[in-house]
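ABC-type multidrug transport system ATPase subunit
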Amino acid sequence: MNVDGASIIARGITARGPEGTVFENVHAHVHPGDLAAVVGPSGTGRTSLLLALSGRLRLIAGHLTVSGHVLPAQAKAVRRLVAPARLRPGFELEQHMTVRETITERRITTGFTRESLEEAFALVDIAPKPDALVHELHPGEQLLLAVSLGAAAGPACLVVDDVELGLPQAARNRVWTALRAVTWTGMTVVACSPDPPGPDPGTTVIRLPAEETTEPLPRAWRAIDNDEGASTEQFTVVDAIPPDTHTTSGETTSTFDEWADEPDSEQGEDPR
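Tokens:
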């Protein structure tokens, strides 16, 4: 899978919902093939910013381009480039469907091939059982299934909401490692979480301030007020660790349960 990743340039972007400011004066520069983390506590506008970067939330001020397409004027073109893996609430896996049904439904809507999905599964190191219900999977494996389904379609950029929600540290490390692996295809990945991933020399961190508002956005999206804006920085300490794939008789098997059951490790350490 070879992808021409998207670039994202934001300068002082601002958005408002019907009841007030959503976010204000946000700056970011994400290069093609980057892993970018939108970081801030719950209620600081992470999801809303992902919506804006993907052409799904209208801006009222600032300058935002995605691979040269200017928002909001060219939002339709941006939506073709930037695909959501998960945006909460509203774009999530159906918990009571099987993995097979979920894959079938997504193939109808996005048209990815069996080969591209197998490659995506290998990149993030999962092998979910086709007859398993989504809610029976570990929360981290649910997230990586969503990431695989999004990546299999080969978008220029993939956005992922709430990367660390409900996960122990070992599983968080694994998920961030898997997202880094997706960028090896050239795809840009923008994900949000309360904290930056473990030390990684290539991760761009877009840090949102702690101020928040409870203004609701249309269609249940939560609106967030950022009084001081946001900054972009490079978070660099050690090299990223590629995901492991254990094979038996030529078949790939998921090691997610092994990772998830380990005690929390210090951030940035390989939990294996």
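The CA atoms of residues 198 and 268 lie 4 Å apart.
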